[in-house]
């Protein structure tokens, strides 16, 4: 078997890309251009050589601040464009622009916009005040007109009214001209008129009444137009009020209450002719202000549209410049301050492209000295980089959510492309539900370009990111559903006639009379006549339980074999001899043997009790099997397998720690020979570890570590095999739940002649299918398949303690948020 594994082709496509640790020595004059070209290439991950310095102590901190300020201005422009509701398409730039020119342009545009906003705000405020004044003139005039019939000397104190906001100078002079002529020092009835929000009116009137102890008369009328609220900027409904009172103290109290409630007070002359004249003047001013506001808004929108056409290009340019300077801050100045020194990781296949980009940077910057690029030896572990496409990206993300693979470790995502959707389908098998999932995944794939350019919500974004996972899950669900012969829990004679018929020719109910086999088995999947029979549940339980064990043992064996390939790749003969071999022997001596018994029982049609066989294999291995014997030589084989399983436990536990101890002692005694590689001593593969740690060998720690691994594997072999029975449990639950919805909702409603009941039953059935079976059950099966991969499969070989390769690249800047 070992020769067979050794002759297999290398797993290059299943391992991360080979990486090189490189050093760059870049002249100052070509540094910016070189980093820019490397960002466009996106194949070099820089190390931060200044991690001991704060951001404000770095060399290019001023340039980063400038880019940050420009980003703030661009966000300001974007907010203004969004508030204005302008949709402008990006137009191509007429000519390239430098960062300095862009900075000047952004400052000019910001100053222009701020000035326009301030002028527009002042005009809008004046317009709102005049509009309120007009409404007060129209409504309060009717109140005052009615008071002329009363022979009560009225005192008008229009010039003493307190205004909540500063009025336009021309309006104030107009008000003064109208009110100064009517001043009077005589005591008598006075009034204050103004306007207030409708929702404040009741509390306003109540407080006035209590403050003046009822010595006032409050009159109000709704305004004919909505007025913009100066705080929220929304159009609100207001009312016009007039308060009649007497006395200086009452006037002072009323004015303070008006200020507290945000009521705007306006003077209204009692003479109707003056009211008409003032109304005409206010209307004229309103028309002029409205025209001015429209012209200002048109000019502002034109300026925003001009900015919007270049906004995206400017944003990307600023983000690129900021990213370049952030990267330059990770480089070190040498002692002469004439060149920058950088270090980083790059894939080996990308080295020619990086050299070409650096050479172009030297030529384009007219530098006298070239950029030095050379490979260095690194102590730390390289980053992990898997090249993925839009199909495999989601599967790789599922694996990375558990932990990023070590450098050059076997990648479980390659196998998960098939095993993950297949195990999901084993639990979700129904080809009707699978077709629904297929339609949903195809819809996401067809609209891929459109949805990829939009911002999606959390749930929709997750579904879109896993669209190809959903596609394979749907296809495998259809396949498993055809095997289970379930279409929304209803069986169909798709592949021919059933192999069974009723015992009696006249019978129609298989539940009472049973079935007999009368010709060859059903060609594909479960025979549809099992549906509704007396033995349906025992048959399906036995089938799915045994099938789950077979799948589980197969996948766990695959995990152990991948552990062998990892050990072989590292050259660790200790891991192969004292980890891979005893693990294979232990697992297959017990559960591999159980899988063999299942297959033999299926092929021979034996009635042997496998529970009895496995239990007494441990309790009484020498006892006679009797009717539970499936093949010749079964008893001695069971004894041999039991002994192998017992021997495999100390084989895993003891040899490896003592061999490591012996090798460590011989190394310090000066013996010169190569140390056998092992996962415990190959510290170069451990992240953030150095060669000096080879001296820190502690036999106690190594032995305890090996003991924990051995106990975990022995107990895990039992618990993990039992854990795969969730495939049987979830599949049975999905099938039974689907049957309940079909029989107790749809068929029950269809039994009535009333069309309303039928439609209601169909609606309830569709709702239950969509939200419970297609959403909740899909999520449940997804999580259980995820657990089987993360725990039962990957713990046999996968360390997952690496770190991702994150190159400096401009490609991801478009999706970044400031």
UniProtKB/TrEMBL annotation:
GO terms for biological process: vacuolar acidification. One of its GO terms (cellular component) is vacuolar proton-transporting V-type ATPase, V0 domain. Keywords: Coiled coil, Hydrogen ion transport, Ion transport, Membrane, Transmembrane, Transmembrane helix, Transport. The keyword Transport applies. Signal peptide: none annotated. GO terms for molecular function: ATPase binding; proton-transporting ATPase activity, rotational mechanism. It is a multi-pass membrane protein. It is found in: Membrane. Pfam families: V_ATPase_I (PF01496). The chain crosses the membrane at residues 422-446, 467-484, 547-565, 585-602, 637-654, 755-776. InterPro entries: V-ATPase_116kDa_su, V-type_ATPase_116kDa_su_euka. Residues 97-126 form a coiled coil. Essential component of the vacuolar proton pump (V-ATPase), a multimeric enzyme that catalyzes the translocation of protons across the membranes. Required for assembly and activity of the V-ATPase. Belongs to the V-ATPase 116 kDa subunit family. This is V-type proton ATPase subunit a. It comes from Phoenix dactylifera. The gene is LOC103718132.
């Amino acid at each position: 078997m070992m020769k067979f594994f050794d002759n297999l082709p290398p797993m290059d496509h299943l391992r991360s890309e080979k990486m090189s640790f490189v050093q760059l020595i870049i002249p100052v004059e070509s540094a910016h251009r070189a980093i820019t070209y490397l960002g466009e290439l996106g194949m070099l991950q820089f190390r931060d050589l200044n991690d001991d310095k704060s951001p404000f102590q770095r060399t290019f901190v001023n340039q980063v601040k400038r880019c940050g300020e420009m980003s703030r201005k661009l966000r300001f422009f974007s907010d203004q464009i969004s508030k204005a509701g302008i949709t402008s398409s990006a137009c191509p730039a007429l000519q390239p622009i430098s960062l300095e020119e862009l900075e000047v342009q952004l400052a000019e545009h910001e100053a222009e916009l701020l000035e326009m906003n301030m002028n527009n705000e002042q005009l809008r405020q004046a317009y709102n005040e005049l509009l309120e004044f007009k409404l007060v003139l129209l409504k309060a005039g009717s109140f005052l007109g009615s008071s002329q019939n009363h022979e009560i000397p009225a005192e008008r104190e229009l010039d003493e009214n307190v205004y909540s906001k500063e009025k336009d100078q021309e309006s104030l002079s107009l008000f003064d001209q109208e009110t100064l002529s009517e001043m009077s020092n005589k005591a008598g009835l006075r009034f204050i008129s103004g306007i207030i929000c409708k929702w404040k009116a009741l509390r306003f009137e109540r407080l006035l009444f209590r403050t003046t102890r009822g010595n006032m008369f409050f009159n109000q009328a709704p305004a004919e137009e909505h007025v913009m609220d100066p705080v929220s900027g929304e159009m609100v409904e207001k009312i016009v009020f007039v308060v009649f009172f007497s006395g200086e103290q009452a006037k002072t109290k009323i004015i303070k209450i008006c200020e507290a409630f945000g009521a705007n007070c306006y003077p209204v002359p009692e003479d109707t002719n003056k009211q008409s004249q003032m109304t005409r003047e206010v209307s004229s001013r309103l028309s002029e202000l409205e025209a001015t506001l429209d012209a200002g808004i048109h000019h502002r929108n034109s300026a925003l549209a001009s900015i919007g056409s270049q906004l995206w290009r400017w944003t990307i340019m600023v983000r690129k410049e900021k990213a370049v300077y952030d990267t330059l801050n990770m480089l070190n100045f040498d002692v002469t301050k004439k060149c920058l020194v950088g270090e980083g990781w790059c894939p080996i296949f990308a080295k020619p492209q990086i050299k070409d980009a650096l050479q172009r940077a030297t030529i384009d910057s007219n530098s006298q000295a070239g950029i030095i690029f050379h490979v260095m030896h690194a102590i730390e572990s390289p980053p992990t980089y898997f090249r993925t496409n839009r199909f495999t990206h989601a599967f790789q993300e599922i694996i990375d959510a558990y932990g990023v693979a070590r450098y050059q470790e076997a990648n479980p995502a390659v196998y998960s492309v098939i095993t993950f959707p297949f195990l999901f389908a084993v639990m979700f098998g129904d080809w009707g539900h699978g077709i629904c999932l297929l339609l949903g995944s195809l819809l996401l794939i067809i609209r891929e370009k459109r949805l990829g350019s939009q911002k999606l919500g959390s749930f929709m974004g997750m579904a879109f990111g896993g669209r190809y996972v959903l596609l394979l899950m749907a296809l495998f669900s259809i396949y498993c559903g055809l095997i289970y012969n379930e279409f929304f829990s209803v069986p169909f004679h798709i592949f021919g006639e059933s192999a069974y018929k009723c015992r009696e020719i006249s019978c129609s109910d298989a539940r009472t009379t049973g079935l007999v086999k009368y010709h060859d088995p059903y060609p594909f999947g479960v025979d549809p006549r099992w549906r509704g029979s007396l033995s349906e549940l025992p048959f399906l339980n036995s089938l799915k339980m045994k099938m789950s064990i077979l799948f589980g043992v197969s996948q766990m064996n695959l995990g152990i074999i991948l552990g062998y390939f990892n050990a072989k790749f590292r050259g660790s003969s200790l891991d192969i001899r004292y980890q891979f071999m005893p693990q294979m022997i232990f697992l297959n001596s017990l559960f591999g043997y159980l899988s063999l018994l299942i297959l033999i029982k299926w092929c021979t049609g034996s009635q042997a009790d496998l529970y009895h066989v496995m239990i007494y294999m441990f309790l009484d291995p020498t006892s006679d099997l009797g009717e539970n014997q499936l093949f010749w030589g079964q008893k001695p084989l069971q004894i041999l397998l039991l002994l192998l399983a017992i021997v495999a436990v100390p084989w895993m536990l003891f040899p490896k720690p003592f061999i490591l101890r012996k090798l460590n002692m011989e190394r310090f005694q000066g013996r010169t020979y190569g140390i056998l590689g092992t996962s415990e001593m190959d510290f170069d593969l451990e992240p953030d570890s150095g060669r000096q740690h080879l001296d820190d060998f502690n036999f106690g720690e190594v032995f305890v570590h090996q003991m924990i691994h051995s106990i975990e594997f022995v107990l895990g072999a039992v618990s993990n095999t039992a854990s795969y029975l969730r495939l049987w449990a979830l599949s049975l639950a999905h099938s039974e739940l689907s049957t309940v919805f079909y029989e107790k909702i749809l068929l029950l409603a269809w039994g009535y002649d009333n069309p309303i009941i039928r439609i209601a039953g169909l609606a309830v059935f569709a709702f239950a299918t969509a939200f419970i079976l297609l959403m909740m059950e899909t999520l449940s099966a997804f999580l259980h398949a995820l657990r089987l991969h993360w725990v039962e499969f990957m713990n046999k070989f996968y360390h997952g303690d690496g770190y991702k390769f994150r190159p400096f690249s401009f490609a991801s800047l478009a999706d970044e948020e400031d």
